[in-house]
Design a protein that fits this description.
The complex is a heterodimer of chains A (1004) and B (250).
Chain A lengths: L5 E5 L3 H12 L3 E5 L14 E2 L4 E2 H14 L3 E4 L2 E9 L2 E8 L14 H5 L3 E3 L8 E3 L1 E2 L11 E2 L9 H5 L12 E7 L1 E4 L4 E2 L16 E3 H8 L20 E8 L16 H15 L4 E6 L9 H10 L4 E13 L4 E8 L4 E6 L1 E6 L1 E2 L4 H8 L24 E3 L9 H19 L25 E6 L11 H10 L3 E7 L5 H14 L3 E6 L2 H14 L7 E5 L1 H5 L6 H21 L7 E3 L3 E5 L3 H12 L3 E5 L21 H14 L3 E4 L3 E8 L2 E8 L4 E7 L1 E4 L4 E2 L13 E3 H10 L8 E8 L13 H15 L4 E6 L9 H9 L3 E4 L7 E5 L2 E7 L5 E6 L1 E6 L1 E2 L2 H11 L26 E3 L9 H19 L3 E3 L5 E3 L9 H5 L5 E6 L3 E6 L9 H5 L5 E3 L4 H11 L1
Parallel strand pairs in A: 1-2, 1-13, 2-5, 13-23, 15-21, 16-17, 16-21, 17-18, 24-25, 24-26, 26-27, 29-30, 29-35, 30-31, 35-46, 37-44, 38-39, 38-44, 39-40
Antiparallel strand pairs in A: 3-4, 6-7, 7-12, 8-9, 10-11, 14-22, 18-19, 19-20, 28-47, 32-33, 33-34, 36-45, 41-42, 42-43, 48-51, 49-50
Chain B lengths: L6 E6 L3 H10 L8 E6 L7 H9 L4 E6 L10 H17 L7 E5 L5 H18 L8 H14 L2 H16 L9 H26 L5 H8 L3 H13 L3 E7 L2 E6 L1
Parallel strand pairs in B: 1-2, 1-3, 3-4
Antiparallel strand pairs in B: 5-6
Helix pairs in contact in B: 1-4, 2-5, 3-6, 5-7, 6-7, 7-9, 8-9
The chains are: A alpha/beta (1004), B alpha/beta (250).
Chain lengths: 1004, 250
């Protein structure tokens, strides 16, 4: 069957959007199918994100806007999957596009229909805490900004038809059924949160002041129902004592909730507690939890900060009951502490940290797409490739396959895209159409001829601002040769009018006074470019969002402000010049540094797409960290997998492997790197060009100084125990084995969790119990962090009689040696001291990263390390495998401790991100970049430090000596360098000082 | 007539401008006095823009960017903060510091944007019209501030501040904020006075005594300033009138 160069992505949350952007940028046609009426998913509902407390909307909305207007992404909302046929490379999917009763191509999103709708319904986006209209958008910044009528609530009064000036309302609009032909499918439907059923232990649904965590998230949000004030629903009071109850619907074996761990609740609960206290200082949060599972990058530090800086109190406990005190509507929590006491405490509000369930339609989707689900009804995925479903050509990412947080979802989205690249690489660019544009009209240096288009936006602007007067006024401004007004300047027919006027009046600058450039500038830029003008010869004045809408009661002042804004735009427009987007050629080859599982996976993916790949390993043999691992907790045979991988790498003609290699230099930039290295016993030199770099240098196992390691033969590492179990019979005679967790993790020297050790200990314990059931195993731990489905194995180990004893950080176990007997003393959380004799003591040593080694490479690549010596990605939430320096990516243990499966995901994700570059012959850089006036520059180098993107370097100029030089390919045009330049030698094209001065004086 | 202040706002594209848009979408009503200039990043806001604005008649200037840690360009807003702090310190010298403000407004804080603008507008209303209008002396001082902020020295200090106080300097040491501020505050005062000296020279106030009287600075310090300006080759000795050397601007 012929392969198809198109991909369907089902679900347009952050995962689906990321996968679509990656593949759209790599030259595939994308059909993005969303069941609700806007994209963004759960992330758009969040107030802040952990562990950085980033504002969710600030970071996600640029991505959503990009998804909404990407020329290779065909976005359909309000859809339902009807039928699927075909196989990997060629699927046909029947999709029902349910009617919005509003024509999305005509709707301008002005919102007049919603304001006039008389029906108030429950606002699901705000989790029922507010009301919305039957004619609405999901949330104010929705993408696409198209209104929809919710037929379930609409009473058919017909008012919206009357008020819609754009004539977009169509009550007889019918559902549309289409067949879509694609080569691969990515399923990203996300999750549904657990809703405590009627009669639940916590009184949810019965007591007003018991809310779920997602409801609380909306309460926290500045754009939520309470405008960011934390109020309790019963009386609108600020609650002082707020309780958070963890594991609601998770780790629940009673049959009511789910047995697995939902992975993200410990962190989001800490975040909500912190943010609540930050919003309202009087709030004192208390968190009731079993374990604290802060296993991700920088998570533990966040928990410590929550406790120390925000006074968040943790109580390790189990909840017995929650009852309401009728007079005050306060809530009384009865709980059992670790040492068995039953206590009671009153709170003004209770937040339930609800778990993540598979999406409600998981079974339906699985059935349609023919994929298997696992025992918990999440998508079943390959044990080595967590994005591969049971059916070739169909991939899953995000919480659909297991509960996970945002960066893991984004990583998997890119990983799924990486796998699609591998499957369909030879069909890139076959289904997308490059737009042919007329040559640009030469206008540089000519006197400005400015055309101004002023938008009524139905009545949104025209109702409050005197648009005819503003239009008349615009016509009187110097250099304005034409001013006109339109009912909707953004409508398709107005684009034709703008193009005609450009011709008729010989315009060489165009201004649109309407809504916000954040969403509409690209549309108008495209229009003037189609008319032959350089797209930078455009300016916008925001007279709606920042004028008419916010000064509705002062029409005269609003009109005056609109005039001022137009005049400022005209003043700037007079000073603008065409800008060029420089083009950079791309060397379609990749360098992968590190020959472990991560590096080899990345190299193989590149190579199978016919990209020549250089794989560099410092050791004599490939395999890295995994050489010492025999099985995964889930039962995968690591050694066999590794052997297979190494064979594939060695036999691939596109991969050049260098072992015992030492990189001497990596020079150049995005698309044009040159690396020199020495390799082999004889230190042979090699030199090659490449377009991208993947850093997969891994990490090391901590070598303990504590617990008699190295002094007593019976004290070994967990990895040594694993080897013993798998290669010898030495365990046979051991009666008692003790394991100590968090050795070299979560302490002052290494203040982070190594993530894998809990699973490793339980894996070894289960293996031993299987072979020698009578062997007694005691695991001394601080928190058991078997997140996600790993919880099952923890449960199993307990069932099989493995003894788990918790100790505190400030009361570490002590190991002593009496004659030949090894004794472990531990003070448990119940405060009693226990002595355990150990025939063998296994230390779960953490994963550490070497500063010196990493620093050298980091300097060469101009990328940063974090405090724990791991590589620091561009953005911890949304760019988990990118570096700020373009063309350089990170994957695997080099990024932070993680499982083999996660390393493989990151490897494929890094490949996908790299493919957005390697798939092109050349990349176009942004035109609005910094520019150096070399005659003024004294080469002090301050801008080099200020630049977060490593886009500036000091070079030797023939005439001016040492001067700064901007690499336009790397510059983002933020202007941090310019505002600081001592000699005013740097200006920002598109936002030059001259232009800004013109606006300042234009204002006044 | 009621005083309607002219307020200029510099908003970063990604957070604050989006927040301002959200205020619109949410129909949050606030006073119409503000005119917004969009910049990609608050780090782009050169202190010079603010001094310029006051010279051409602004009554108040507000700079808004992403909350710390949220910058679209990683850390542009931290740069903005440093530059703003310097601007504020300069303006304090002429009692204008109540006419500027730096605020972090996120893309979801539409209501807050409205509240901040309302509150700032009221603050400026209370402060009254900018006294700089048609006031030669104040315009002279504002011009001097602009020149002072443009000096290599101030820009170098403000540009390096984060690096040497939060990270480490070229010796791998961290300079305490206290020590840095001591140096910084001194520089602010010096450069402002020197800029005034330069501007005065243009107006024919051209010897130490005249300058000391006009600027109300101790003559010995005026002399120090003049010598440094000479080293910078901005001025030179002119003729000597009686026993008093005259300085000329180059």
């Amino acid at each position: 069957m012929e392969k198809i160069g198109a991909v369907m992505v089902v679900g347009a949350g952050i995962g689906g959007s990321q996968a679509s952007l990656d593949l759209g940028d790599a030259g595939f046609k994308i059909y993005l199918i969303e069941s609700s009426t806007s994209i963004g998913g759960v992330m758009a509902q969040l107030d802040k994100t952990f562990p950085t407390n980033d504002c969710a909307m600030c970071i996600v909305s640029p991505k959503l806007v990009e998804t909404g207007r990407h020329q290779n992404i065909d976005l359909s909302i309000n859809c339902e999957i009807l039928d699927v046929s075909g196989e990997a490379g060629n699927f046909t999917v029947k999709v029902k596009k349910k009617s919005l009763y509003i024509d999305p191509d005509v709707c301008t999103g002005c919102g007049v229909c919603g304001q006039n709708c008389p029906v108030e319904a429950i606002d699901l986006f705000n989790e029922g805490l507010a009301k919305y209209k039957a004619t609405s958008v999901k949330y104010p910044q929705a993408v696409p900004l198209v209104y929809a009528i919710n037929k379930d609530y609409c009473i058919g009064c017909g008012i919206c038809l009357g008020v819609c000036k754009a004539k977009a309302v169509q009550y007889d609009r019918e559902d549309e059924i289409v067949d879509i032909n694609v080569g691969a499918v990515i399923l990203a439907p996300g999750f549904d949160e657990y809703v405590p059923p009627e009669g639940n232990l916590y009184g949810y649904g019965k007591y007003k002041n018991v809310v779920t965590s997602i409801e609380f998230e909306r309460i926290l949000s500045a754009s939520g129902p309470y405008a960011g004030k934390v109020l309790r629903p019963s009386d609108g009071d600020i609650p002082i004592d707020v309780a958070f109850i963890q594991c609601v619907g998770s780790r629940d074996y009673s049959g009511v909730g789910k047995p697995y761990c939902s992975s993200v609740c410990c962190m989001y609960t800490a975040k909500e507690a912190v943010i609540a206290h930050e919003h309202m200082h009087q709030i004192e949060p208390t968190i009731f939890s079993m374990d604290i599972r802060a296993y991700g990058k920088d998570f533990d530090k966040y928990i410590i900060r929550a406790q120390e800086e925000y006074h968040v109190k943790y109580i390790r406990s189990r909840i017995s009951s929650v009852t309401e005190i009728p007079e005050t509507k306060d809530l009384r929590i009865r709980y059992e502490t670790e040492d068995g006491k039953i206590l009671e405490k009153d709170f003004q509000m209770v937040v339930l940290s609800v778990g993540l369930n598979p999406p409600d339609d998981a079974k339906y989707l699985a059935d349609k797409f023919g994929i298997d689900l696992n025992e918990y009804d999440f998508a079943k995925t390959d044990i080595w490739n967590p994005v591969q479903t049971s059916k070739p050509g169909i991939y899953a990412c995000g919480a659909f396959s297991q509960p996970k947080d945002i960066p893991e979802t984004v990583t998997q989205a890119s990983a799924a895209a990486g796998c699609v690249n591998q499957l369909l690489y030879d069909k890139r660019g076959t289904l997308i159409t490059e737009k042919s544009l007329p040559p640009e009209i030469f206008v540089a240096g000519q006197p400005p001829r400015i055309g101004v288009f002023i938008c009524h936006c139905g009545i949104n602007i025209g109702g409050f601002v005197d648009v005819p007067e503003v239009t008349r006024y615009a016509g009187t401004l110097p250099n304005v040769v034409m001013s006109d007004r339109n009912l909707y300047t953004c409508s398709a027919d107005t684009q034709t009018i703008i193009k005609e006027k450009i011709k008729e009046y010989n315009l060489n600058r165009v201004i649109v006074a309407s809504c916000t450039p954040r969403t509409h500038e690209p549309l108008f830029q495209e229009t003037i470019r189609e008319a032959g003008l350089n797209r930078y010869l455009f300016q916008m004045a925001n007279i709606r969002d920042q004028c008419s809408w916010v000064h509705m009661n002062e029409p005269e002042a609003a009109t005056q402000k609109a005039k001022d804004l137009v005049r400022m735009a005209v003043n700037k427009a007079r000073n603008i010049e065409p800008l060029n987007r420089i083009k950079l050629s791309i060397t379609p080859k990749a360098l992968v540094i590190g020959g472990g599982i991560t590096g080899m996976t990345a190299a193989l993916n590149f190579a199978s797409q016919d990209f020549e790949t250089y794989l560099v390993e410092k050791e004599a043999q490939l395999g890295g960290f995994a050489r010492h691992i025999y099985h995964t907790l889930e039962g995968g045979d690591v050694q066999e997998f590794l052997k297979d991988l190494i064979n594939k790498v060695k036999s691939n003609k596109n991969i050049h492997v260098y072992t015992e290699a030492e990189i001497e230099d990596v020079a150049g930039y995005l698309g044009n790197f040159k690396t020199t290295l020495v390799h082999g016993k004889n230190k042979e030199k090699a030199e090659f060009d490449h377009g991208v770099v993947v850093v997969a240098t891994g990490a090391q196992e901590y070598k303990p100084k504590e617990y008699l390691y190295g002094q007593n033969d019976k004290v070994i590492l967990q990895s040594e125990l694993e080897k013993m179990i798998n290669t010898s019979d030495d365990i046979k005679n051991k009666k008692s084995i003790v394991m100590i967790q968090c050795v070299g993790s979560r302490n002052e020297e290494h203040p982070y969790c190594s993530k894998m050790c809990c699973a490793e200990a339980i894996k070894n314990a289960l293996r031993i119990k299987e072979k020698y059931p009578s062997c007694e195993i005691t695991i001394l731990f601080r928190d058991i962090r078997t997140y996600g489905f790993k919880e099952k194995f923890y449960r199993e180990a307990r069932k099989k009689g493995v003894l788990f004893l918790r100790y505190d950080e400030d009361n570490l176990p002590e190991v002593s040696q009496e004659d030949s007997q090894l004794k472990v003393k531990v003070t448990t959380a119940r405060k009693d001291t226990i002595y355990v004799n150990a025939d063998l003591l296994a230390l779960s040593a953490g994963i550490i990263s070497d500063r010196e080694e990493n620093e050298e490479l980091a300097m060469m690549l101009k990328v940063p390390l974090n405090d724990d010596n791991f590589y620091l990605e561009a953005h911890v939430k949304l760019r988990p495998v990118d570096f700020a320096t373009e063309g350089v990516f990170v994957a695997g243990l080099a990024h932070c401790p993680k499982t083999i499966e996660d390393c493989i995901s990151q490897a494929n994700a890094a490949v996908s991100r790299a493919c957005t570059i390697l798939s092109k012959d050349e990349v176009e850089a942004e035109g609005k970049v910094a520019m150096i006036n070399v005659a003024r520059c004294i080469g002090c180098g301050m801008c080099v430090e200020n630049c977060a993107y490593s886009a500036i370097e000091i070079v030797e100029d023939r005439r001016f000596g040492r001067v700064a030089s901007i690499n336009q390919a790397l510059c983002k045009g933020c202007g941090a360098c310019s505002g600081n330049c001592r000699c005013s030698a740097i200006d920002i094209l598109g936002f030059t000082s001259e232009q800004i001065y013109a606006m300042i004086t234009g204002r006044l | 007539m009621v005083f309607e202040p002219k307020i200029l706002g510099f908003l970063c594209n990604w957070c604050s401008y989006a927040g301002a848009d959200l205020a619109g979408v949410s129909r949050v009503q606030y006073p119409p006095n503000i005119r917004v200039i969009r910049v990609m990043c608050s780090g782009r806001v050169d202190p010079m823009f603010i001094f310029k604005a006051f010279q051409v008649g602004a009554d108040g200037v507000i700079v808004m960017g992403c909350h710390p840690g949220d910058c679209h360009y990683l850390e542009g807003n931290y740069e903005a903060e440093k530059k703003y702090n310097m601007t504020e310190k300069f303006l304090k010298l002429i009692g204008f510091d109540n006419r500027v403000r730096l605020e972090w407004v996120s893309a979801s804080e539409g209501t807050r944007y409205g509240a901040v603008v309302t509150e700032f507008t009221q603050q400026i209303k209370d402060a009254g019209p900018s006294p700089a209008k048609d006031n030669e002396e104040l315009l002279f001082k504002l011009k001097a501030l602009e020149m002072a902020a443009a000096t290599d020295r101030m820009r170098a200090l403000v540009g390096r501040e984060r690096h040497i106080t939060e990270d480490e300097n070229v010796y791998g040491e961290k300079v305490s904020l206290e020590k840095f501020n001591e140096i910084f505050d001194k520089a602010i005062k010096d450069e402002y006075e020197r800029a005034q000296v330069l501007l005065s020279l243009e107006k024919g106030v051209n010897n130490v005594k005249l300058l000391a009287a006009k600027l109300d600075i101790d003559p010995s310090i005026v002399l120090e300033h003049l010598l440094i300006l000479k080293q910078r080759m901005e001025i030179d000795f002119g003729e000597i009138m009686e026993n008093t050397p005259v300085f000329v601007r180059l």
